[in-house]
Amino acid sequence: xxxxxxxxxxxxxxxxxxxxxxxxxxxxxxxxxxxxxxxxxxxxxxxxxxxxxxxxxxxxxxxxxxxxxxxxxxxxxxxxxxxxxxxxxxxxxxxxxxxxxxxxxxxxxxxxxxxxxxxxxxxxxxxxxxxxxxxxxxxxxxxxxxxxxxxxxxxxxxxxxxxxxxxxxxxxxxxxxxxxxxxxxxxxxxxxxxxxxxxxxxxxxxxxxxxxxxxxxxxxxxxxxxxxxxxxxxxxxxxxxxxxxxxxxxxxxxxxxxxxxxxxxxxxxxxxxxxxxxxxxxxxxxxxxxxxxxxxxxxxxxxxxxxxxxxxxxxxxxxxxxxxxxxxxxxxxxxxxxxxxxxxxxxxxxxxxxxxxxxxxxxxxxxxxxxxxxxxxxxxxxxxxxxxxxxxxxxxxxxxxxxxxxxxxxxxxxxxxxxxxxxxxxxxxxxxxxxxxxxxxxxxxxxxxxxxxxxxxxxxxxxxxxxxxxxxxxxxxxxxxxxxxxxxxxxxxxxxxxxxxxxxxxxxxxxxxxxxxxxxxxxx
Length: 524
Prior knowledge:
Elements lengths: L6 H25 L19 E4 L7 H7 L28 E4 H12 L16 H10 L22 H4 L3 E7 L7 E2 L12 E3 L9 E3 L12 E6 L3 H7 L14 E5 L12 E4 L4 E2 L3 E5 L3 H11 L2 H10 L6 H4 L10 H12 L6 H7 L37 H19 L3 H11 L1 H7 L2 E3 L5 E4 L11 H7 L6 E8 L7 E8 L3 E2 L2 H15 L5
Parallel strand pairs: 4-10
Antiparallel strand pairs: 1-2, 3-7, 5-6, 8-9, 8-11, 12-13, 12-16, 14-15
Helix pairs in contact: 3-4, 7-10, 10-12, 12-16, 13-16
């Protein structure tokens, strides 16, 4: 394509490409195919070559010509979506991914754990800078599936088959004990095992309500859609066994939603499930013998770099080939990662053993990377070996800050640069960026307004928010019927205290990177 003597050939190929895109667009309009549908257009040569070019995430054929004719080296690489949240059609020379033997070896090692680069799968790489990110993953020494302390993924109860054989039954109710808890995908969130509760009448995927971590009792179990259908002994006997020969549910487990949505805010929704709790096959779970390792992996999986790795593989299910390919981190930042992982995941007393076994006095020397009145300044300093209600991060603002710091700590553990982390965020996570740009917090750290479609019942409605968003003082209330607790439904009143603020994730990344670099004596 770069050869000036191939001008006529380029015109012919572009003409065919435009016809192909026109055909696709007509089919999309006719068939009403959604945005996530992926097409592939490939131009082949019958001559042997040492490399080939790829451009991913194309939405207009003109982008190809812009990429090859690009000369503004000062211009940053455009993301998947533009500033108006439309699919980005701008070209850039860095959108061209030259794939040679060295790049194929990276793909093969990272995604397949193989040295056979000729059979390497081709991931979706938006820009050439992301190749360097994958190199950081390639350099890690150990991956999850190769650890003797990790059991292979378990899917537990199939919704149809397990109901047919009398193992489980559908009943939207509060389990009477942790042994009767059977979660489904929407019940869990990012580093949050009690993210949403099923409604009393739950017949569709939207029949779930966000749980307020500030009001739940220590022994809280959310309402779910399934319960055991047989006796306790019979139910226990049917629980799958690990490769070590004991029951899968006897361990704290890393669990995640099996279905992966590559186009949404986050791809991987992973948290920790306590012993004896069950799940349906819409959840992928792995038992991990070493509790320190579990907490570390859970914290890593809550980070943007690990999420990007799963996204790049392009798989729509969380299985051994992608989850098992994630690295087990080493280095100076593990206590920082583990402390934040526990603080996010250990939301009830069912995590007391995990907390006490993993806790170390070094946690009390940890600090937030930035100063804010919305962050409890001495939160880490007051932690103790015994779990209590205040051990967990419960406000929206504090939980977000812990996740931001996990992004930075995991990036540094992988040997990435700050620029690589910012590139991942700006290019690969446009929905997260859109939500960050319009999520506001009150002076107590509670979300007062958000455009996040997964949090439709959180905060004020747009018209209510527009009336108060500029207020510098005052308390504003919202009344609603809360049916997320066993004692419900009850009318609750939430107070939002002005002034209101929103966050800038890139600025917070830079602040955290500078903080941890100085703390551990490492450069940016």
